[in-house]
TrEMBL record:
It comes from the Eukaryota. This is methionine S-methyltransferase. Residues 624-920 form the Aminotransferase class I/classII large domain. The keyword Acetylation does not apply. Keywords: Methyltransferase, S-adenosyl-L-methionine, Transferase.
Length: 931
């Protein structure tokens, strides 16, 4: 209220508080109104907010029509403001910067948002709401902010004669929205503001609905957390927020996730490292849920997380590479088309030569499935369960028995019967596992596929009680997917957490479980030979040892602070509902991006995945199908090379030289391709990972020209680019001219562009990979491998938004990227200095967050390492990784990973304090090794 109102209100209060004789009127508690009422001058609830007053009730009757003279409202309210102006304040409001302004409800919206921060959890807000915008609009204002509404009263009143409704007419002129008036008090057909205004002008009486809303927050603390976060600079997003759902439990799910996201964005600047098997917290929560709700004694180590059920099934089949697998017909849709044939069963010899896996579809009804298993004797069975069989454990027991007898591995999919509910219905498989341990030949697969808030937001997990299987599955995720999108793990982690906090700690000791007989190990299929060789020899991520904190300079991910626009885009993507196709149409943006960034207007088919590694792997499969040979320059990101080996690709390494910064040259490429029949050349660029060197325009033109000469297929991987230190000096790429020319000269030559936007867009854990293809047979072949971890629509929305922001060569996003590049450059220098002073020879990087160095001082040195056990080791360029890890807890990649003899790899996009610790570790290692 404004100041003169305060004075009038006091007068009114006295008139009400005293009787005719001037004596105080006492209420039942012997108090007067004077003891209970205060008046303060305040812009809406500012007084309460500034004085930390928490309210039980907020009652408001405030203007809901824009002033017909918008300039009037921008005047300061002063003691000597004109009477006319002060009067107008009781009827009109100004634009408030809320989406509800478009209905004149901006002031109400602001009052509600201010109310959220000052109301007590059980408090109630009561508002007089003119029904002119329509009941739907009025209710939505509250509901999308997490309120439930009770209508206390409703009537129809004449439009106040002193209030000009022409602002509403103006709104109707510029939008399809129609307000709701009535002719006289008895009219029951609504008329719009324009008609009402004309009718009123001509002497007619117009009316509108008036309701009294009583509003209460559904999840007060969580909604307060969300708005608290939005107020910390993310105000613009509040227009997108939509917390209303038909079903209360769905609304609660969204509210609790957004509150969780608010708190992590507020507290932490970056997403932490998560192991490939899945976030430790998430896996512990899954295990905790199994323990508390289903009495199955599992721990986080029994759980491996996958991006989706389809990916889990395909990857598992690749790990075992069985001759024959039987897969539930509902689960074969995303398997490679090449597998879905029965033609190979008979011709055992052909099969061995082609190394093709055959998958037979089967109905999930257990008697039919069992019959098929008995007849066909598959090595792997993946099946779900019919609904009528899922309640008791008998069908599961039968499946366990028959697969054990035959010597098949069983993966049982319980996705359709798994409920994330505080009262989960009976589930035969889980009931069985409460009393029996899971036999070694069986594992449980579960996709979380029933999301009603964010359709298709999927994560899957596999449960096993076999250590080697769990380890191998985790490594398979690492090799084929890289990681499971952390944001999806956060989402479901939040749900599990809510369910667990709902339950009292279990005070019963877990029941003794029976140990099931296992199949004899000779009968049962083991991992494929390529899998064994990669799993045993590849330098994959190191397992976090409980309670020890490893420092990861061996992960291709940025742990630098997530900048403001990125947080905003992610939060907004989860705030929304009903996104339109155009808002998540990422292809237009990516097309534009590759055209302006690399001069690559050639893509006709775009595919997206959670990571570029996943897309690369599908390309490897295409290469294998075409009988091609993958050619990697020496000094390629080890993860790519290991994945190609795991997938059994034919591989040729093209030599690179130290004096050329381990860059691929035309000459070396020429020599190598001379001896390869169907070459597929992998080029990481413009920025090369791991060396951090850059190919300039001339260099890439020469390389492409050579590739074209041999009709090679080229995979240009831009995933690590966009953070070049000296952009001006380097000048960027424009491939359009050279490729147009080369495409004319060779028909089998083709270039596909692979990329990932996380590093250059600073999205950290929010990964988004794309692949642009432009040759038809290859496109068809590529799509025969459809089992991809596809980015969720929220990711597409956020990435599209950020791409839009990045296009502007100014503004907050641009500033953040520029700062990041400067920061990485200075870090690369700091690391270089430390390494040089500790006896390493560094190859100075020119871009990105990965660099290589040679441990010259340490090679062939025999060192005594003191750790849990003392041991002596003669250091070389590959065991130095283990030695540094044991001595200091720092993880780097050795030369086995970089492929460059002598050179180890370091990533530098660590959280600042971690980076400093890493530098200390390098110095510490020198002290230890040179004792
Ligand atoms: C229709 S009158 C209602 C008066 C009285 N409260 C009642 O319910 O009868 C609307 C009131 O809202 C007040 N108002 C308008 N904008 C305001 C703001 N930003 N902060 C506080 N009060 C405001 C006006 O001063 C006016 O007293």
């Amino acid at each position: 209220m404004v100041s003169f109102q305060v004075k009038i209100s006091w007068i009114n209060l006295y008139l009400n508080a005293l009787d005719e004789k001037g004596q105080p009127i006492l209420d039942s508690e012997n108090r007067t109104l004077l003891d209970r009422v205060e008046f303060h001058e305040s812009d809406l609830l500012a007084y309460c907010r500034d004085n930390d007053i928490q309210l039980e009730r907020i009652v408001g009757c405030i203007p809901q029509i824009l002033n017909p003279n918008p300039d009037a409202m921008s005047k300061m309210i002063t003691e000597n403001a004109s009477e006319e102006f002060l009067y107008s304040l009781s009827n009109y409001c100004a634009l408030q910067g809320f989406v509800e302004d478009q209905f004149g409800l901006g002031l109400i919206a602001r009052a509600v948002e201010e109310g959220i921060s000052v109301i007590k959890s059980t408090g109630i807000m009561i508002f007089n709401m003119g029904g002119r915008p329509g009941q739907g609009v009025c209710k939505r204002l509250f509901e999308r902010r997490g309120f439930c509404i009770t209508k206390l009263w409703q009537t129809k009143i004449l439009q106040a004669a002193d209030t000009d409704i022409s602002a509403l007419v103006e709104i109707e002129k510029n939008s399809p929205h129609r307000f709701e008036f009535f002719m006289g008090l008895s009219g029951d057909q609504p008329i719009c503001a324009r008609t009402a205004w004309a009718y009123g002008k001509a002497g007619g009486r117009i009316s509108h609905a008036l309701s009294v809303y009583s509003c209460q927050l559904r999840q007060p603390n969580q909604v307060k957390t969300i708005f608290d976060f939005l107020k910390s600079g993310f105000q613009e997003i509040s227009g997108s927020l939509d917390l209303s759902f038909q079903d209360d439990s769905v609304a609660d799910e969204k509210i609790s996730f957004l509150a969780y996201l608010s708190s992590i964005f507020k507290e932490t600047a970056c997403f932490p490292y998560e192991p490939p098997a899945g976030s430790l917290r998430f896996r512990s929560l899954i295990a905790g849920f199994m323990k508390k709700y289903h009495h199955i004694p599992l721990n986080s180590g029994n759980v491996v997380v996958f991006p989706s059920r389809a990916v889990a099934i395909e990857n598992t089949l690749r790990l075992f590479s069985p001759r024959l697998a039987i897969v539930d017909e509902h689960l074969t849709r995303h398997l490679p088309r090449q597998w879905l044939t029965s033609l190979n069963i008979e011709t055992e010899i052909d099969r061995a030569a082609n190394d093709v896996l055959t998958v037979i579809d089967a109905p999930s009804q257990s008697d039919l499935m069992i019959e098929l298993i008995k007849k066909l004797k598959p090595q792997v069975v993946v099946t779900g369960m019919a609904h009528f069989e899922a309640v008791t454990s008998s069908a599961f027991v039968q499946l366990l028995d028959v697969t054990r007898e035959i010597g098949s591995r069983l993966f049982l999919d319980i996705s359709d019967h798994f409920e994330l509910s505080s009262l989960p219905s009976s589930n035969g498989v889980l009931k069985y596992l409460a009393g029996n341990s899971l036999p070694s030949h069986a594992a449980i697969l579960c996709g979380l596929v029933k999301n009603q808030v964010y359709m298709d937001l999927e994560v899957a997990f596999v449960i096993s009680e076999e250590e080697p299987i769990l380890k191998a599955l985790s490594k398979t995720v690492e090799l084929l997917e890289g990681n499971t999108a952390p944001i999806s793990q956060y989402y479901y982690g939040c749900l599990f957490h809510e369910l667990l906090s709902f339950q009292l700690p279990d005070r019963h000791l877990p029941a003794q479980r029976k140990c099931d007989k296992s199949a004899s190990s000779t009968d049962i299929i083991g991992f494929s030979s390529s899998a064994i060789s990669v799993l045993n020899n590849a330098e994959l991520s190191l397992d976090q040892i409980e309670n020890s904190c490893l420092i990861h300079m061996d992960v291709d991910q940025s742990f630098l602070p997530t900048p403001f626009p990125v947080k905003a885009a992610i939060f907004e993507s989860f705030s929304r509902q009903n996104m339109s196709e155009s808002e998540i149409d990422i292809t237009t943006s990516i097309k534009q991006f590759v055209k302006t960034t690399y001069g690559f207007p050639f893509g006709i088919d775009f595919t997206y995945a959670d990571s570029s590694l996943t897309l690369f792997n599908k390309m490897v499969l295409c290469c294998i199908q075409e009988g091609g040979t993958l050619c990697f320059p020496v000094g390629t990101n080890g993860s790519y090379v290991y994945s190609a080996k795991f997938l059994k690709a034919k591989i040729v390494n093209i030599p690179t030289k130290s004096e050329e910064g381990f860059k691929l040259t035309e000459c070396a490429l020429n020599q190598a391709l001379n001896n390869v029949k169907t070459p597929w050349v992998y080029i990481s660029g413009p920025t090369i990972n791991p060396t951090g060197r850059v190919y300039d325009q001339k260099e890439i033109e020469n390389l492409l020209t050579t590739c074209a000469k041999f009709g090679a297929r080229v995979i240009i991987d831009t995933s690590f680019s966009g953070l070049e230190f000296d952009y001006e000096g380097w000048g960027g790429w424009n491939l359009e001219g050279v490729l147009s020319r080369l495409y004319l000269s060779s028909s089998s030559f083709s270039v596909c562009l692979l990329g990932e936007l996380s590093s250059m867009m600073l999205t950290g854990a929010l990964k988004f990979g794309f692949l642009a293809l432009n040759q038809l047979p290859l496109i068809d072949l590529f799509h025969s491998f459809s089992g991809l971890s596809r980015p969720h629509s929220t990711v597409k929305y956020a990435i599209k938004k950020l791409l839009g922001l990045s296009e502007k060569k100014s503004g907050e996003m641009w500033g953040a990227v520029t700062r990041q590049i400067k920061d990485l450059r200075s870090r690369s220098r700091r690391l270089e200095e430390t390494l040089e002073s500790c006896g390493w020879d560094v190859l100075e990087p020119h871009a990105g967050f990965s660099m290589v160095a040679k441990p010259t001082l340490y090679l062939n040195k025999t060192t005594r390492l003191k750790n849990a056990i003392d041991y002596e080791v003669k250091l070389d360029d590959s065991n130095i990784r283990g030695a540094i890890l044991k001595a200091t807890g720092l993880c780097i990649n050795s030369s086995s990973w970089t492929g460059i003899p002598g050179y180890c790899r370091f990533t530098i996009a660590l959280e600042e304090s971690e980076f400093q610790k890493a530098l200390d570790c390098i110095a510490e290692f020198k002290r230890i090794a040179c004792l």
